[in-house]
Amino acid sequence: MPDSMTRKGGFITLFFIAAGTLSGVMLSGFGWLANLIVYLVQEFNVESINATQIANVVHGCINLLPILGAIIADSFLGSFHVAAISSFISLLGMILLILTAKLSSLKPPPCEIGSSFCRAPSKLQYVVLYLSITTASAGLGGSRYTLATLGANQLDKPKDKETFFNWFFFTVNASSIISSTAIVYVEDSMSWALGYTICFAANFIALAVFLAGQRFYRCDKPQGSPFTGLLRVVVAAVRKRKVLLSSRSEDYYHEHCETSKVMPVTANGWFRFLNRAAMKTEGDIDSDGLIARPWNLCSLEQVGNLRTVISLVPIWSSGIFLITPVAIQSSIAVTQALSMDRHLGSNFKIPAASIIVVILVSSSFFVALFDRFVFPTWQKLTGRPLTLLQRIGIGHVIIVLSMAISAMVESKRLKTIHDNKLEALPGAIVPMQVWWLFPQLVVIGIGDAFHFPGQIALYYHEFPASLRSIATAMVSLVVGIAFYVSTALVELIRRLTGWLPGNINSGRLDNLYWILVAAGALNFMYFLVCAKLYKCRNIEKEVDANSGFDT
């Protein structure tokens, strides 16, 4: 049996997990998600800014749910079962979305964009719509990052895992590109019901492929709540708050004999208090040398795990306002595209939702370029790799630059509107090509290619082994919070200013972008401080006091 287990895993499993399952899940999920704003505006008569806010909430839910999925995977079911169940739930959501598109009784009568005589959806129509979106979101959110953990667990070498995360990100984007162009085109030009049916088919095939590869997977075994061990450290340290700390290694409990070589018994500043949890006192250890009172004594390894999690929180928090501008940009860009000239030739009109594909193409291209050429070349020229913290830091700078470009392009769009006197005409098409939005979206993609794979790899390597599923979902949690922050920020600016009216042609989106530039610059400085204070403990060659953003 042990030999059988050791033969499982390896690169063969990635065909099922990444090429088959992940690509199908993302084809399906992004097929409806990318065009959600347009669907709400055109089929359910929702105002554009309100549709943007709804889409941001949906994005937030999809990116918060992976944390719940990760907790269930690590504590109870394992990554395989969570991914399988989530994929099935998303199938149910797609069935409901197909019904909302197919049955006229489940949506209000159509009306022209900008008309003041549009009928709002009924309560029943809203209930069915939100139920379908919620179910589809739950399935997508529960499967995406769980598949990342399951895929990484199939590989043994840290370098292979880091490469996997790069190609995981590439697969997500490549699948999203196809869905944001081909499927969105079907939805806009042919039929919403047909487009959603294609999403259902992609999801169904993905689930079938995933189940077919089960015998090859190296499945992780859940070991109870991973947070229990962390909580025990806090409780034990508080209970022993009056115990004097010792500098002798033998006064502390070591889970493994070699632990003392890698886990110091001293700590600076905030973490010194936690060492008390590992100090041996009378009655803590039984006759077999094992812990007799688990809520009164922990190993130094457990103390170190909690230290690592706490140390990562500041870096993790800096990611919230790194992604908040991107969340705002990706949603508002669709509403901008709706008001711009999207014709490609005389007969073809680019779907507004497909504008986001520029970000995906850019990030996918640069992820592959960085992984295969830029990073290896950098290492050959400098004799050292670009660290994960440096990659994240470069991503910060590029995202701030993209917001500055967005502000300048929006100023150009508003000038064109003013010159043509279109401010008071809701739904009017501005005589300005949609290509003007491309530069800012390309730059966002470059920034994403730096910081997203870097963050996933950083958390996976640095978090305790018992928290691996949660580690990969930490980026998703940041994205989810960022979408909620973006929703709150947009709503706050709407209340305090007149910059974001229902008709964006009479607003001042450029001012919003300049605010994001200033906030992003401040957030980057905060990240630099956090990165300078943090020391990576698990990744080879990460710690270097003289390198850029790292210490």
Automatic annotation (TrEMBL):
GO molecular function, one term: transmembrane transporter activity
Compartments (UniProt record): Membrane
GO cellular component, one term: membrane
Entry-linked InterPro entries: MFS_trans_sf, POT_fam
Transmembrane domains' residue ranges: 12-34, 54-73, 80-104, 124-143, 164-186, 192-213, 309-328, 348-370, 391-409, 429-450, 470-493, 513-534
UniProt keyword Membrane present: yes
Chief site of localization: membrane
Family: Belongs to the major facilitator superfamily. Proton-dependent oligopeptide transporter (POT/PTR) (TC 2.A.17) family.
PANTHER family for this protein: OLIGOPEPTIDE TRANSPORTER-RELATED
Protein name per Swiss-Prot or TrEMBL: Protein NRT1/ PTR FAMILY 2.7-like
Organism of provenance: Gossypium armourianum
